[in-house]
Description:
The protein has helices spanning 3-16, 19-26, 45-54, 56-65, 79-83, 85-90, 114-125, 144-158, 169-181, 185-192, 211-226, 247-253, 266-279, 286-295, 300-316, 323-337, 343-354, 358-362, 368-385, 389-395, 401-417, 419-431, and strands at residues 30-33, 37-42, 72-77, 134-138, 164-168, 198-202, 230-235, 257-261.
Amino acid sequence: xxxxxxxxxxxxxxxxxxxxxxxxxxxxxxxxxxxxxxxxxxxxxxxxxxxxxxxxxxxxxxxxxxxxxxxxxxxxxxxxxxxxxxxxxxxxxxxxxxxxxxxxxxxxxxxxxxxxxxxxxxxxxxxxxxxxxxxxxxxxxxxxxxxxxxxxxxxxxxxxxxxxxxxxxxxxxxxxxxxxxxxxxxxxxxxxxxxxxxxxxxxxxxxxxxxxxxxxxxxxxxxxxxxxxxxxxxxxxxxxxxxxxxxxxxxxxxxxxxxxxxxxxxxxxxxxxxxxxxxxxxxxxxxxxxxxxxxxxxxxxxxxxxxxxxxxxxxxxxxxxxxxxxxxxxxxxxxxxxxxxxxxxxxxxxxxxxxxxxxxxxxxxxxxxxxxxxxxxxxxxxxxxxxxxxxxxxxxxxxxxxxxxxxxxxxxxxxxxxxxxxxxxxxxxxxxx
Length: 433
Ligand code: ADP
Ligand code: MG
């Protein structure tokens, strides 16, 4: 890449990224053009990973706009830094920076998460003093990482002298492996023990089964805990339920406070949607917010995803977000989210719709009125439950997978020309939404 095109790319990135992201992630990087790739190198892993998360797609867009997108993009940590313990491990820039998007005041509180929220806030006011460790657990997309970042953000704002390390357990593991490989264990330990005042470790369940990392973390934990340094850990499960995690760690995780986050109730989901819409200047009518919140129930990330889909469709159609659009769009999304949608449920609905017995659908009876409903079952199981042909065959009374394939294809081609069949199918589908 000539220096001139690099200047152009930087300009585009500068225009498309928030200023703090550009200055913390793009400015410290260096670009090199290779024969078939662009190499972008970063002073440390944290910068590289944050760049990957926040700047990669804007970069790809910029390259595309400038017609420079024929080569691969490779992100690296500068080799000199990788080998140098001084810089890899004790570089002050490796202390975490926190995206101001994830704050306590952008976190919507409901009965499902107020306890965890309060505990995190207490910790961010008096780290190391009230609950140590603080262990937050709950399902995917319920705000654990948001809370962890909010603690980091608050602390780095109010107590800028604190050395805060925020990372995933996966990153911790990789760093440990790297330290062993290049013989830098002393520096690794220094970084996570004497060099750290607050450790925010995300997704600890990742350590399950990783004995060497668990052992190292055990000593890290003890050191920090004895020195009254705050430790906050998140997990998708309660400590004792993490299989493959050493007992002595499970026990320690319960020493302080264990707080859970539960799926939010519908009012909280509406509030979250409205907040996100307002934050992103998306105009979201109340009826749509309620509609989305009542259909997307178990995961806040999905809730945000629906909002973005709605906005994308609205702007593509040059229309505003309205209930019609929401109904149309969530139609594809909802079946995947309804966890109670099961193979048995599909059969039951088809049987009900056609006034048949489930046993008859699974049987080998050759009655004419059975063959189409059977094929509809095959089609629905394939489409909505993503079952394989042999799985469907086994489920539908030991039928050969080619029979299933034929059945599915029959329905696909006939529903194009037979409006009654099409209506029947969408009627059934609407029932399990
Ligand atoms: P987890 O780590 O539990 O899987 P995240 O913290 O990554 O979930 O949350 C997923 C998304 O949902 C994030 O964008 C986060 O900001 C948002 N989110 C989760 N809970 C809330 C909440 N109570 N209020 C506002 N946004 C939330
Ligand atoms: Mg998370």
